[in-house]
Amino acid sequence: MMNVVTNNKWIGQRTIRPDGVDKVTGRAAFAADTTMPGMIWGKVLRSPHPHARIKSIDTSKAEALPGVQAVVTAKDIVDFPLDKSVMLGIQDMRWMCRNVMAREKALFPGHPIAAVAATSEAIAAKACELIEVDYEVLPWSIEIDDALKPDAPILHDFVKFEGKPSNIAGRLEVKKGDIAKGFEEAEIVVERSFTTRPVHQGYIEPHACLISVAADNKTTIWSSSQGQFMVRAMTSYLTGINQSDIRAIPAEIGGGFGGKTIVYLEPLATMLAKKSGRPVKMVMTREEVMRATGPTSGSKSTVKIGAKKDGTIVAAHGIFYLQAGAFPGSPIRGAVGCSFAPYDIPHVLSEGFDVLSNRSKVAAYRAPGAPIGAYAVECVLDELAEALKMDPLALRLKNAAKEGTKAAHGPVYPRIGYVETLEAARDSDHYKAPLGKFQGRGVASGYWFNAGGESSAQVNITEDGNVVVTTGHPDIGGSRAGIANICAELLGIDYRRISVLIGDTATIGFSNLTGGSRVLFASSIVVTQSTEKVIHTLRERAAKIWDIDPEAVKWENGAAHPVSPNAGQFEPLTLAELAEKAPSMGGPIGAGVQLNTVGAEGGFGTHIADVEVDVELGIVRVIRYTAIQDVGRAVHPSYVEGQLQGGVSQGIGWALNEEYIYNKQGKVDNPGFLDYRMPVCSDLPMIDTIMVEVPNPKHPQGVKGVGEVPLIPVMSAISNAVHQALGKRFYSLPMSPPKVLEVIEG
């Protein structure tokens, strides 16, 4: 850890996580643990076809089956006409209403066609089999190249590109300078093309919910999501029930990584509960998760970078095609905006294309789009360094963005720690360690925007002088532990006296999603302001007892003190003492703040990967890994390290094994963890971390989001390492054993 601030008691300490005991003892309640008297089960009938017009649906046999309580089809979900977008955050309700239930056409294998609620799961599943659907099967395309062919089947006739119906749903570009002029100045140019496959977020807990709807439409939702306010809003839009009539309660969440920022089951279960008059529970199987929820995009990219012979990069051009799945909305912003962001390049053009195909709609996955863009850019930089006979870190250092650099995507950077991450990598023991036969070392860097946004908090002092903090966003990255550290620091009390709760939509003010590396950044701002209000009240109460001016009272080490002997000679009044006196001195002590937070700064990281290639089996093993990141202020270092290690673990899977494999019928052929090869412990090395602390001056504790940057450099660092081990380059992921053997033997 570098630039460490040591004058804090709790901020920066490795305190025991507040949810730890519940998680390891099994007491924590997840969405699938929820039950209610009279509860029935919901199941979904899904399309077997990648592309088919739905001519008719006959549910009469299913409805007649004993035990069936309700059946729902597209006619029960609010229809949003196609000619006008209806945005909720970054999601368009035109696509969401058609994603949760197929309307005109089934657009991917697994697309929901109908849903059934029955007294048991088995009866609900049997009823789904009894639903008769008349399909007109249509031609389909799965891959980007197929979807872009002149004669490709068009998914949506109204989507037009350059005036014609197209599977290109949108284009985004950022630019700076004049790339034609830049490439004229270049003395060496490297241009390469790359492909990546769709990979799933891989959360261990499947989507699940339990929903009760009363006769007056009062609706209660228990579900696994990255935002209960998102669940409330989307369910309201898609069912027509007023938001004020819906209470969404967040359960503990068994992973999300961006994949639980939209709804799949909640609108269906709500309508089944409304129709049946019974609470409805729905839990996806792993196969349903893999077939019908968002992976991230597959991609094809071309990156061209030009430099002077001294290593000064003068021009960069990136073209990124990302799969959206069946509906518009691939994360081209991350690929286009982040790919060149670590570098000070005078001439940049970065273009992204949103490509439709007959796959499930993509969802966010940890720095959406940015790992795809960085994979291409960082591999080209490695080839450029090789051509220039420069050390790859030296090339990056020479061109590194720093304070005052104007990024192609807009901002002028304030004080940032990217150079420090490169220097820490260069100076590390890892970078200098010797390598053996068929071993290689690669480096890569990455950037993510980070975000602020709406957050709410309430801080209340309990009658016995402890503290309850309520915030409005699910904790998927350690935010409760960080909040406890910050609140304890401000109040000057032991962190174990702080309870941190996640409020539901009826008990806390609006709070945006857990995503974008925003939660600790945003929630600590509103918690800090709430705590400061509480401290002001405590000082006023002490001043009243001592009959002095509140300005003559300071709060220190968990108690009120006179600011100086001149203010009076009084024994300190502790938090517990003031809480005890609260009923007779103005009542309960508490404060809340609701704010649209600003001041988030982007994050930068640099990674070093060592690999060893088994040339007989084609297996690439990562044998050593170091992730270095500018983390702002590490409020809870163990959680920061965990974020870095988790991102690396996911990137190793993306680089070496994970991919959706489709069969000739256009269906996912590996919809389960047996065949979809996520890394397990034996696939991973010990992952070292170096935390560079360059505090964010716009935040009261210096916080920067850390959760997304750790995934971005991984695939390129490993690819560059494999090149050094074998002397051969790979331009597609994953670098799985058959592909590695093909390159070795070819």
List the domain count as a whole number. 3
Shape: globular
Q: What's the tally of helices?
A: 20
Radius of gyration: 27 Å
How many angstroms separate the termini? Answer: 44 Å
CATH topology of the largest domain, by name, is Aldehyde Oxidoreductase, domain 4
Query: Helix content range of the residues, please?
Result: 25-40%
Mean pLDDT: 97
Strand order of the largest sheet: 3-7-1-16-13-14-15
The CATH architecture term of the largest domain is 2-Layer Sandwich
Structural class: alpha+beta
Q: Could you state the CATH homologous superfamily of the largest domain? A: Aldehyde oxidase/xanthine dehydrogenase, molybdopterin binding domain
- Beta-strand portion reads 25-35%
What's the total number of strands?
30
Largest sheet: 7 strands, mixed
Classified by CATH, the class of the largest domain is: Alpha Beta
User: Can you tell me the residue ranges where pLDDT is under 50 for at least 5 consecutive residues?
Assistant: 1-5
